[in-house]
Amino acid sequence: MSRLDATGDPVLTERDDDVTSGAVAFGETAPAASPPPRAATHASRASVREDVDDATTTEAGPADGGAAPSAVSPKAMARGSAPRAARSDRVVRAVGTAALVGVAVTVWLGLWVTPNAVDFGNLVRLLYIHPPLAWVMFIAYGVATFSSLLYLWPRTRHARFDRLAGASAEVGVVFTGLTLVTGSVWGRPTWGVWWTWDPLLTTTALLFVLYLGYLALRKVPGDRETVARRSAIAGLIAFLDVPIVFVSVSWWRSLHQAPTVDVANGHLYVHGSMAWTLALGFVSFTLVYVWLMVHRYRLAVLRDREDDEGLDAALAERWAEGTR
Amino acid sequence: MSGYVEAGYVIALGSLSAYAVSLVVRERAARSRLPQSRGAATGATSTARSGGTGDQA
User: Fold this and answer.
1) A12 CA to chain B: closest CA distance, Å?
2) Total domains present in chain A
3) pLDDT tens per residue across span A159-212
4) For chain A, what is the mean pLDDT?
5) Rounded CA gap, A199 and A236, in Å?
6) Is residue A276 part of a domain?
7) Co-location of A150 and A68 in the same domain
């Protein structure tokens, strides 16, 4: 969100107060006053709304020749944000604990309780982690794409959607890599090879490379808004491969077995304790994804702030030199 | 149990754990690099600094 200082230049305040994302947990306050150089430098970013809690934003101060600081003091800001931060932390801790317990129970059921399968013998136990990892991969890329769309849509353009897209894509790449590795571990004893150019494997590997490229693109230096826009477009392009991966097993009947959970026809190919363990695996790994996302998003917020702090310090130094 | 099954579980859960730890460590490092005046205003931040579980930010 941009404001105008006394000179009419837009001043971006950097407070992120997104409760659901966990950013509120920082509870940090906006600078007491934004010096003119900062306003001028950030003018190009004025079209992108930043996360700002109006109640805790201090207007341009006397240093700008503008109005007096807002009546909301830093102590009052801290009082308001601390309880929300504590609530947010409790929720994140609960999600983390549930994920940990869920994964532990899944491993216990998968390795020691469930029976061997008729066709796959003991190897069926990999079933309880491989499809859930792939499931989270789809969720992560779905969230990244939806966030990219929201960022590109002018009415919803907001820095938080760019951060969400980047965070979700990174977590998605981790899960894609693990999907490929656990699939390979399954393939060696089942098919006799660690890797084969099966359509599902190939399109999944392509997805992995596409999103690695997306993450690399996000590292290319540039104005924050430019980087966010081109990353969002790249994210949409990369997502084109996701539906192909999803339907590749049905389109090309090849080495990879048919999906255990046939979403299209509503059929489940496992039953009893095996089905419950698989379902628990889906839920547990989804919770793991949520927990990882919150922390990755918080890291993105902190790094953005760190960049801004560095910029502020450099500009303040130059400003001081200029006024001597 | 087959060695492949154990290997799959160790790789998957070990990698996820390593990634989760790296996120928490990077998050704390990034927070500590920010000026104290901006982070000291919240109870959550002070909890994290006093040895929280890593969920605080």
Assistant:
1) 17
2) 2
3) 999 999 999 999 999 999 999 999 999 999 988 999 999 899 999 999 999 999
4) 78
5) 22
6) no
7) no
Does the pLDDT at position A88 exceed 80? yes
Residues of chain B with C-beta less than 8 angstroms from the C-beta of A22 = 57
Looking at the structure, do residues A153 and A220 belong to the same domain, yes or no? Answer: yes
Minimal-distance CA residue of chain B relative to A30: B38
**Which of B13, B34, B44 has the CB atom closest to A85's CB atom?**
B44
Query: In the block, which residue shows the tokens 């809690």?
Result: A53
A174:B56 CB<8 A: no
State the residue for tokens 């200029």.
Answer: A322
Alpha carbons A197 and A37: distance in angstroms, whole number: 56
Instruction: Tell whether A94 is covered by a domain.
Output: no
ipTM of the complex: 0.74
pLDDT at A56: 34
Q: What span, in angstroms and rounded, lies between the C-alpha atoms of A78 and A69?
A: 17
Yes or no, beta carbons of B2 and A298 under 8 Å apart: no
- Residue-number span of the structural domain to which A208 is assigned: 114-270
pTM score of the predicted model = 0.74
**A130 Cα to chain B: minimum distance (Å):** 9
pLDDT band, residue A82 (cuts 50/70/90): confident
Q: Which residues make Cβ contacts (< 8 Å) with residue A133, sequence separation at least 6?
A: A175, A178, A179, A182, A285, B12
* Residue, of A58 and A181, whose pLDDT is higher: A181
* Residues A59 and A207 placed together within one structural domain of the fold: no
Is A48 part of any domain? yes
